[in-house]
Structures are given as C-alpha cells and as structure tokens.
Design goal:
By secondary structure, the chain is of the alpha+beta class. It is built from 18 helices and 24 strands.
Length: 639
C-alpha cells in the first residue's frame, strides 16, 4: 500500500521521514488486500516471463495473527461493481444475515499454522464418491470436470498459507491470505508464459514433471513435455467436455521439448482462466490409446495417485512422491468418505474418524465444537453449494408464465428463515469477481429481478393465463434428503401448494442416480441442483444455456443468450463485457431456466489436529484442487 505525505515547511521534514517509515511499516503488517484488476479483466495481465510459483503474485508480509483480528464488512466484501454490472446497495447488503454470518465465521479468523506437519492420513466426508458419474471412467467425460487431482496446467491462488509466494519452501506459513477478491491465475505445469500479441500464447512447460511409472505408461523418459500438452489441448478440443472453451484455438505448435505456441482465432478474454479451471488437468496419450486412462491406474503428474476406489463409498489417494512441488502434499494418505446419514457423520467426527463435520445450523455446529474442544469452525461459501430447481422444459414448465408464477408464489426470504436461520443470498451464474465485486459477493434479493419478489396474486393471474388455474402435479428429484437444501425444497413445496395448487412430490435418490438423470436428460419435472455455479470464467457460465453446449441439459434454445455468448466470448473491452455478462444474468433470471433459491452456507467444523485444509474450503470439497494443501498433526490424531 503506497502512502505519500507532503509537507511544505522544512522544519517538518524530519518528522515527515519518521511518519513515512512508520506508515510503510504499518502497511507491511496488514493482510493482503490487493485491489481488484481493471474493470472486466478476467485475469491479471501475464508478465512477459511469468516467474515460478514462488514469486507470482508478490506475497503480503505476515499479518497480525488472524484469530485476534476483527473483520469488518469493507475488509471482506467489495461494495461496488464495475459500470454495466449489478448495482448493489452496500448499506442494505451489509445487514443481510448471511453477510453477518460470513463475517462471524470467516476463514480469515482461523488460526494459522507456523510449521508444517508431514505424514498421517486426512479423512473427510465429501460428496464426490456419493455422487458424480464415475469420476474415473474417462477424463474427457462430464463427470470428471471437477476432479482436479489431475496435474494442473495452471491454477488459481486461494486460501490461507497458499503455495504462492513460498519460493519452494512449504515448511512454514508466512501468514498471507491469498487473493480473496480477485481470481489470480498462477503457474503450475505451465511454469511461465508470454503473450506476444492478442492471438498468441507461448507456454513454457516446467522441467522435471514426471508421469508415474504405471502401465500403460511405458516410456523410458517419463518427463512431461510440450508434446503431451499439445495432445491434451487437441483431444479436449476434439471431444472433451471443454471443447466449447477450446473451440477458438486455431493451432497448437510445439516449438521445442518444453515450449509450445497456442494461436487463437480471435482475442479471448478468458483463455488463461479457462486453462486454469479445476477440471483441466493432464493425462497421457498412452492412457487414451489404451482406453484405460484412469480407473485404478490414475496416471497423473499431480499430487495424488489412487490407492483405492469404491464407488459410492470412498476414494483413497496416496501421496505422489514425484510431485513437482517438492514438499507437497503434506499428508501421506487422503481419503474421501461417503457417509449419507447426518447422525453417522456427526458420530464419525466426534470419535475422530474424520477431520470435518458440516451443518447448516450454527447452534448444532457449536454443539459439536463443545464435544470436541479445540475444533475450528468457519462458514463455507463454496461456489458449488448453490441450490436450484432446474425445470425440464416440457409440459407446464415449458411455459415461461408458469415458471414465473412458481417463482412469484415463493416467499424466498421466508424460506431463508425456515431453512437457514435467515441466512441467504441469490447465487450468481458468473464468477462474481468478473463483475468487480470479489468472490465474497452474492446478489441480494433486490437484484434478482421482478419474478423473485413474493407476489402470490400476480402468480395466480399468470397461471390462469397459461391455462393452469387449477394447478398441476410435478416431481422434484433430489439426492439431498436433509439439511438446509432439503428444508428449502419443503418450503417451496408448501408455497406452491398453498398459492397455486401445484403438487410437487419430492423424490430422494442417491447422488449418482441424480447426476445420471441430469447428464442424460432423463428427469421428470424439476431436479435439484444443476444451477448457478459461480464459474471462474465467463465463457463456462454461458454454456448451460447455449444451444449445443455440453452443460445444456435442458436443451435451452434462447437466441438472446446465444447472441450475448457470441459477443462476450471475444469481447476485449472490459466495460462492454461486464455489461454483457450482467445482461445475460438478468436474462436467465427473467426466463427462469433455473430457480435460484439460495446459496446455502454450511458451517464446517474441523478437528483440532487438522491444519490448513479448512482455509482452502472453497475448492477443498468440490473441486478437489487443493486437498494437497491440507495437513494433520499425526501425534494428536485420535485415529
């Protein structure tokens, strides 16, 4: 932080010098609070030669211990958006219960570790094994898009004690809180890059990155090269889930063993952010040719190798001893368990079998803390914990008047009181920092538009106009049978019946079935989830609603959205792009292809002997991008 003082009288010059020195000293003791990038800039400008992870971006010196800091609204939330984006009222937003809870249980308040612990096993309860389409069947299928335990080409900086600014020393936490407001792309396998012109990227592959010595990897030389990266880009563009994101790549040319040139057909504002997405990770050509890429042969230059995988039950990873960031991961084993019964989850935590417990009720979470003294609690505001009822566009739901009536008939704020002690905000489809507001921002109810304001009389009129004055029957399919999201569904069910005589039966299935019904477009009525995800790049935020898009499970064909997508994907003027993204957001909230009822805030409780993982929770549970940053104290573990 630059602080400049100016005095005009000579007698005060000595005092000026002292004050300036003190000011600089104070600035160096503050937590990182780098200003947001220029309006609409989806990534920071790449340096001519982006340095190794140890030096990008410049780390903040150690702050006062986090546990002693009091958080203010302005220290966590950005209160203005760039021109063309949503206009928020900071005074109104600050009073939201969800905002107050975030300040009370923010990850910044977690204690910092001072020296790394190595060894042990981290076992936590997560949704992955209970849910997605078999994440090890094919790395190009949709079900694998979040499995970032692959070797990452680029990644994002986030969390307490991140690996950015460490100069290769992962033994001590220097106390930095990395980039809570801006999404910053940092090197991984791609160690540095240049952009000599708007259509050209030169990627330099980190030397010494090794493929694991597991068949069908039979190369004598196991070093990952530029040829491997070219193969990955080519195959993703041809048939991968990110084919739309990479469609504008004109060519990928290998210049030498560790250098490749990527040429695009037009300037792309989100290209680096797309490459850094959690699902973009390397696998070798040998796997693809053999038709056995993953399964138990988890061939990745990333931090983990699969030790055991039982679908719907657990995944256990073992540390990759050849991982290119020496000193990581911290733990030897990392296990994700599926425990669907809330009582069993609580018992597993209290008895020390797992490192985490999650609840949507702060009173319950604190009750668990009392039973396990020393536990740490923070409010998890993951982009993936959104709630949406995505309608299948057939029958009554094909009529936008019906969708608008259903939304108008629902008292959203009352449902927040019912499900979540009043904690609630409307999810954003786009990454929030794309509007200039930082990752900690969500829409207040006032920004959600006309149809989100409770008005049962107008809802009845719309239903009559659509020919459904007497209501109809529909089905809500969900894999969530408890907690805030389920209570939200019960509230929706009640309001629809009371105000519109719409009978919505709730069908609880296992998460794998729900995911399969979604991806194969086989659900009836409405399905829980599949809604706004706060994508890190604007392009991906469009794809659930673009004709032919890989995430467009409803087969939406909206010419307005398609036009905005085509404009935005190549719009380099930052202010114009912000306006396009926000126009798209409003279009979706007007047409109601999903009902954005809440961005649920689970309270995550972590064991006293767990370190660092909780502060990375934004990516920890869902994207699995930084599970390798967690550590435990093996001497204090109960297991």
């Amino acid at each position: 932080m630059a602080r400049t003082w100016w005095q005009t009288r000579v007698p005060f010059l000595l005092g000026l010098l002292v004050v300036t020195i003190l000011a600089i000293s104070c600035a160096s003791s503050e937590p990182s609070s780098s200003p947001a990038p220029a309006p609409g800039a989806s990534t920071p400008a790449a340096p001519v030669a982006a340095p190794a992870p140890g030096t990008t971006p410049t780390p903040s010196p150690a702050p006062t211990p986090a546990a002693t800091q009091g958080l203010t609204f302005s220290s966590v939330f950005s209160t203005t958006s760039w021109p063309g984006g949503p206009k928020i009222d900071p005074a109104k937003f600050e009073k939201e219960k969800g905002v107050q809870e975030l300040l009370k249980y923010h990850a910044k308040l977690l204690p910092l570790w001072t020296k790394a612990k190595y060894g042990g096993e981290s076992v936590f309860v997560g949704p992955v094994t209970g849910g997605l389409v078999d994440p090890y069947s094919d790395p190009l299928k949709l079900g694998t898009r979040r499995n970032a335990q692959f070797g990452r080409l680029l990644t994002y900086d986030q969390g307490l004690c991140s690996w950015v600014g460490r100069d290769g020393d992962f033994s001590t936490c220097k106390g930095q809180y990395a980039n809570t407001e801006a999404v910053v792309v940092v090197p991984a396998i791609i160690q540095r890059w240049e952009q000599p012109d708007p259509l050209t990227y030169i990627f330099h592959v980190r030397k010494g990155v090794l493929w694991p010595a597991i068949p069908p990897m039979v190369r004598t030389d196991r070093e990952l090269t530029a040829e491997d990266v070219k193969f990955y880009f080519d195959i993703q563009k041809k048939e991968g889930v990110y084919r739309d994101s990479f469609a504008d790549i004109k060519s990928v040319d290998v210049l030498d063993r560790s250098t490749l040139k990527i040429t695009t057909v037009a300037p792309l504002p989100d290209f680096l952010r797309t490459v850094a997405q959690s699902g973009v990770g390397m696998f070798p050509k040998e796997c693809y040719d053999a038709g056995d890429c993953l399964g138990k042969k988890f061939l990745t230059p990333g931090p983990w190798l699969v030790k055991e995988y039982v679908i719907r039950q657990k995944i256990t990873y073992e540390k990759n001893p050849e991982f290119f960031l020496r000193g990581l991961p911290y733990v030897d084993l990392w296990t994700i368990l599926t425990i669907t019964d809330p009582a069993a989850q609580k018992s597993a935590y209290i008895t020390g079998q797992v490192v985490n417990y999650r609840s949507y009720d702060p009173t319950e979470a604190q009750g668990v803390v009392r039973q396990v003294p020393g536990s740490k609690t923070h409010l998890q505001y993951s982009a993936a914990s959104t709630f949406s009822l995505r309608p299948k566009l057939e029958g009554p739901l094909a009529d936008v008047r019906v969708r608008r009536a259903l939304m108008l008939a629902t008292d959203v704020r009352a449902i927040w009181d019912l499900c979540c002690l009043g904690n609630g905000v409307i999810p954003s489809e786009m990454g929030r920092d794309l509007y200039g507001m930082g990752r900690s921002f969500w829409f207040g109810l006032d920004l959600a538009g006309t149809w989100y304001q409770y008005n049962p009389e107008q809802a009845k009129k719309l239903m009559a106009e659509a020919g459904y004055a007497n209501g109809f029957k529909t089905l809500i399919t969900t894999s969530t049978g408890s907690g805030g999201p389920y209570e939200t569904m019960l509230g929706v069910q009640s309001y629809w019946k009371k105000n519109l005589n719409v009978e919505a039966s709730i069908n609880v299935v296992d998460a794998l079935t729900s995911r399969t019904l979604t991806t194969e477009r086989k659900w009836q009525g409405l399905i829980f989830g599949g809604g706004p995800g706060g994508w890190t790049d604007g392009l991906t935020g469009f794809l659930p609603f673009i004709k032919g898009g890989p995430f467009n499970y409803q087969s939406v064909d909206d010419s307005v959205m398609t036009d905005l997508y085509e404009k935005s994907r190549r719009e380099m003027d930052p202010l114009k792009r912000v306006a396009q993204l926000w126009e798209f957001e409003q279009r979706e909230m007007d047409q109601l292809y999903s009902f954005r009822f809440n961005h649920h805030f689970p309270y995550d409780v972590m064991q006293p002997w767990e370190m660092n993982g909780a502060s990375h929770a934004w990516d920890f549970y869902w994207s699995l991008g930084v599970g390798w940053m967690t550590m435990v104290d093996p001497d204090k573990m109960k297991r």
